[in-house]
Specification:
By secondary structure, the chain is α/β, with parallel strands linked by helices. 31% of the residues lie in helices and 23% in strands. It has nine helices and ten strands. The strands form two sheets. The chain has a six-stranded mixed β-sheet, with helices on both faces. The chain has a four-stranded antiparallel β-sheet with strand order 2-1-4-5, with helices on one face. Helix 6 links the parallel strand 7 and strand 8. Helix 3 crosses helix 4. The protein is globular. The N terminus is likely disordered.
């Protein structure tokens, strides 16, 4: 499939320099990555996501979206190029600190929830960061309140609905006080109520958001900037409102304009 790069006039608007000490900045430079079987998943990714931006990552299956997300906190590595979070390069030395800064929420919450109670799952990250027990208690309460799950501490995660488990998955990363939240297909499999509840959790979050999704209606509602990835290449990057009106662009990259 050929690439479709938009004119420079439609690229993401330039931003002022990041203020010292501002958290939530993602910088990716010339990132290449191939799997052991030779599949080239990423081919020279260049991205700059500013603190507090709300960004959609879209494209067809196999475009490299999940591979890119897994580079942001060091789950995948070994490629060429660099990924930096708040001016710190992701590498084996920095990875523990990076994983506290970048909260990755998987598509399937059962990949993230493994403890006997909700409280244990939400406390897991801070516990392994060495946070004092009293502070862990406050973090668990705060994270559960943020996702509308106060009072669920003693519940067994796998007895909850899919929508509830997804919100608990978000709480497990919020308890680590990240500056960046990364979601992989957050609304996949949810019924309308579950989708609304999760969207409410995401709305107004102060953290930088990077959301890989096929749900272009969610993009229209909540994510002002869109990056289109196809065959491991960034083919377009700019305002969501413009991209979602461009049926030719969307169709060229396996996407469909959401219903009005």
């Amino acid at each position: 499939m050929g690439t479709s790069v938009l004119p420079a006039s439609q690229s993401a608007p330039s931003s002022p320099p990041i203020a010292p000490g501002t958290m939530g900045h993602i910088a990716i430079e010339h990132l290449h990555f191939a799997y052991p079987d030779g599949t080239e998943a990423l081919r020279g990714i260049e991205l700059d996501i500013r603190p507090g931006e709300k960004v959609a990552l879209v494209g067809p299956n196999g475009a490299g979206k999940s591979t890119l997300l897994l580079h942001l906190n060091g789950i995948l590595g070994g490629g060429h190029g660099s990924v930096s979070i708040d001016d710190t390069v992701v590498d084996p030395v920095s990875v523990k600190r990076i994983r506290a800064a970048v909260g990755l929420v998987f598509q399937d919450p059962d990949d993230q929830l493994f403890s006997p109670t909700v409280r244990d799952d939400v406390a897991f990250g801070p516990l392994h960061m060495g946070v004092p027990q009293e502070e862990i208690h406050h973090r668990v309460e705060r994270a559960l309140a943020a996702v509308g799950m106060t009072g669920m501490e003693r519940r067994v995660p796998h007895h909850l609905s899919l929508g509830q488990r997804k919100r608990i998955s978000v709480a497990t990363v919020l308890s680590m006080d990240p500056s960046i939240l990364v979601f992989d297909e957050p609304t996949a499999g949810l019924d309308p109520r579950g989708r609304r509840e999760l969207m409410a959790v995401m709305a107004g979050r102060p953290e930088t958001l990077l959301v890989s999704t096929h749900d272009l209606a969610m993009v229209a509602e909540a994510l002002p900037r869109t990056i289109i990835l196809d065959e491991g290449i960034v083919v377009a990057d700019g305002p969501s409102v413009e991209f979602l009106q461009d049926e030719t662009l969307l169709e060229a990259h396996g996407l469909e304009r959401p219903c009005s």
